[in-house]
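> example.struct
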C-alpha cells in the first residue's frame, strides 16, 4: 500500500496553492484547510488514496455519506473546499464547473426523554433580539462589551468585524455594485466606518452618531494586534469583539432573559428592522438586495436566513 503524507500536511499543501491567488480571506483558508484535513483522514481510514487523487465522483460519494451525520453548513464548507481544490489545484473540474449541492439529512441529536437538544430548538426559533432585549443584554455587560453590543445591533456587524472598525477616510471600502437605496434613511444620522468582512471584503458600515461619538472616546493611541480564532486583527478602538465578546453576549443574555440565540442574533435584528423600513418604499426583492449589500452578503438569498 502506498504511503501518503499526514492529513494536516496534505491539506496545507493544497491551501498553499490556493491562498493569495484564488482565496483572499484568511478565515476561509483556515476553514477550508480544516475541512480538507478531515476529508484526508477519511480517505486514509478507508484506504481511498490521497487528497489530490480524489475525483468528482469520489467527492460526491464522500459528501453523500457525510450528509447523514453533519449539518448543512459543514457539508457546504466541505463541498466548497473540495471544489476549489479540483478547480484550481488538481484540475479535476474546469474553472466554471461545480460539484453538485448535497442536502444534509442529519437529524437532531436527542437529549433526555427523547427531547431535541438546545441547538435544535434554537435553530427552529427566530434568532433576532428585540431592542428591549438588546438593552437588557448590554446592561449586564462590561462597558467595552456593552458598546460593542449596541454597535453590532445598530450596524449589523459580525463578531470579528468589531475588531477591525476604522473611519472610512482612513480605510476605503472595496468597490462593489451598490443599489441607490443602500443606507437610505440612515445616512444623515450615522457616521461611515469600514470593517473587514467575510471573503476578505472591506465594506462600509454606518454607526449612529451618538454611538460613534462614544466609540471615538476610546480610540487607541496606537493600534494593537488582537488574535481571534487564529486570525490577527489590527484594532484601533478599545471595544469588545471576536469570540470573547460573543461569549459575553451569550452569558449576559442568559442572565437577563433566561436564554440566548448568540451574538449573531443581533445581525438578525438589523436585517429584520432594515427590511421593515425599506419595504415601505421598495418591493420586497429590491429591499432584500439592499439589505444584503448593507450586511456584506454576496448573494441576497443568504440574507433570507436572517428574516426568519
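> example.seq
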Amino acid at each position: 500500500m502506498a504511503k501518503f503524507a499526514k492529513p494536516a500536511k496534505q491539506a496545507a499543501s493544497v491551501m498553499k496553492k490556493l491562498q493569495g491567488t484564488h482565496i483572499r480571506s484568511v478565515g476561509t483558508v483556515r476553514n477550508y484547510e480544516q475541512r480538507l484535513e478531515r476529508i484526508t483522514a477519511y480517505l486514509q481510514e478507508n484506504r481511498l488514496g490521497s487528497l489530490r487523487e480524489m475525483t468528482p465522483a469520489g467527492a460526491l460519494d464522500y459528501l453523500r455519506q457525510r450528509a447523514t451525520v453533519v449539518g448543512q453548513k459543514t457539508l457546504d464548507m466541505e463541498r466548497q473546499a473540495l471544489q476549489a481544490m479540483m478547480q484550481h489545484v488538481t484540475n479535476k473540474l474546469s474553472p466554471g464547473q461545480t460539484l453538485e449541492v448535497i442536502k444534509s439529512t442529519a437529524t437532531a441529536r436527542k437529549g433526555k426523554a427523547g427531547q431535541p437538544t438546545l441547538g435544535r430548538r434554537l435553530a427552529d426559533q427566530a434568532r433576532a433580539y428585540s431592542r428591549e432585549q438588546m438593552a437588557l443584554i448590554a446592561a449586564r455587560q462590561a462597558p467595552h462589551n456593552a458598546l460593542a453590543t449596541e454597535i453590532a445591533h445598530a450596524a449589523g456587524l459580525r463578531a470579528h468585524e468589531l475588531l477591525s472598525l476604522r473611519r472610512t477616510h482612513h480605510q476605503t471600502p472595496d468597490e462593489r455594485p451598490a443599489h441607490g437605496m443602500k443606507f437610505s434613511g440612515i445616512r444623515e444620522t450615522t457616521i461611515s466606518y469600514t470593517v473587514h468582512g467575510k471573503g476578505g471584503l472591506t465594506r462600509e458600515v454606518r454607526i449612529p452618531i451618538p454611538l460613534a461619538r462614544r466609540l471615538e472616546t476610546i480610540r487607541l493611541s496606537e493600534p494593537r494586534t488582537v488574535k481571534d480564532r487564529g486570525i490577527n486583527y489590527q484594532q484601533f478602538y478599545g471595544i469588545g469583539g471576536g469570540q470573547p465578546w460573543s461569549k459575553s453576549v451569550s452569558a449576559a443574555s442568559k442572565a437577563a432573559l433566561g436564554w440566548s440565540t448568540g451574538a449573531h442574533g443581533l445581525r438578525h435584528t438589523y436585517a429584520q428592522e432594515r427590511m421593515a423600513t425599506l419595504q415601505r418604499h421598495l418591493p420586497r426583492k429590491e429591499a432584500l438586495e439592499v439589505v444584503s449589500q448593507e450586511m456584506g452578503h454576496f448573494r441576497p438569498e443568504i440574507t433570507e436566513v436572517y428574516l426568519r
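> remarks
Residues 223 and 236 are 5 Å apart (CA to CA).
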